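Onboarding guide, step 5: your first structure request.
Type a short instruction followed by the sequence, for example:

Predict the 3D structure of this protein.
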Amino acid sequence: MPARSPLDAILPPEGSAGELERRLWQRLRPQAWPIPPGALPQGTALVGGAVRDALLGRLAEHPDLDLVVPAGAVTLGRRLADQLGGTCVVLDAGRDIARVVVGGWTIDLARQEGQALSDDLGRRDFSANAIALPLAAGSRLLDPTGGLAALRRGQLVAVSEGNLLDDPLRLLRGIRLRWELELELETGTRAWIGAHAALLGTVAGERVLSELQRLAAAGEGQRGLAQALELGLLNPWGADREAAGRLALLDREAPERLGLSAVEGEVALPLARLAALLPAAAVAALRGSRRLQRQCEGLRRWWQRLHDLAAPAGQELDALPETERLELHRDLEATLPALLLALPAAGTSGALARWRDGEDPLFHPRPPLDGDRLRLALNLPAGPELGALLRHLTRERAFGRLGAADAEATLAAARRWLDERRG
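The system replies with structure tokens like these:
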């Protein structure tokens, strides 16, 4: 039996003129859009991701609407934002491109490039994104680059080599779309991506990181990141060339094996994949936030430390000395599930349960008394000694030697520690 095409559910029988468009509009549900299609200028067409995802049956509840208008996109965007109570952002004044954000919807408006809509579509990255659905009643789908045929074959095909080079970010986007849409890269397209991989280094780091984050969130994103690494796309930023082994552990089933909820998995899995791939210096070179740099640095550091311990599977955390274990939980208080995803599943359920308990004194370390209360009760000045005392008391509480509710016992332990320290 031949493999099913991603389009089988929507393609009508041969000779059914206009039926494909009718089915597309049913999926697109224009009645739910924040603006009726009829209120947009004559000649407007829906292009790109929304058309592609409607064809593939992957449409989100609030799909991003990418609209090509004959002219005046920025002016139109500002007017729509005023009318709808949304926000208009000018993305490219020179090319007349604007974005309207309103009520959970994102509407991108761009002036048509070229004399005809087919000219505009011919400038796009991949044939799957170069299919247009004009908004005028009775209009037929416009597909000048063979996007439908490529989707029917289950392939992602670049419109042309030159189009990829017009914006080298498209090289990485091709990898992301291949895994996000579960298509195969057409042979020539893959060859172009590999041949021009070094050009990705000319792209602003924040744009590259945004694509990597989307790729990391895809179901098989670990394979996509490994492919980007294999093709040399990430060499300019110092990605970890040995990351493939750890990435292989971070498949789409990893959160379920660990027992994460869907929400927990949506946060932990992409972060774990990025940390496996990118040292903190690479995140910095990609202009990632300091928070993301710290998260990747912490995860990589503790993965390596636990690996070096060579402890039995499921006992890695318990094998750490107390001081290091407390330090791990302090470093990874918000991101421990991402660490656990790359460890053997055996023995991690107990750690996950304790992490979910926000009052657990080891997994969410806090001193039993705050610094101000200690300082006043013990007549201590603010300074290094007070800091060291707080760390000591936090450790004592974390390992069950002090209770959070017993202030007198805590003060007595603090006095003993000070006496011993001062000799």
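Each response can be followed by summary notes, for example: DSSP finds 21 helices and eight strands in the chain.
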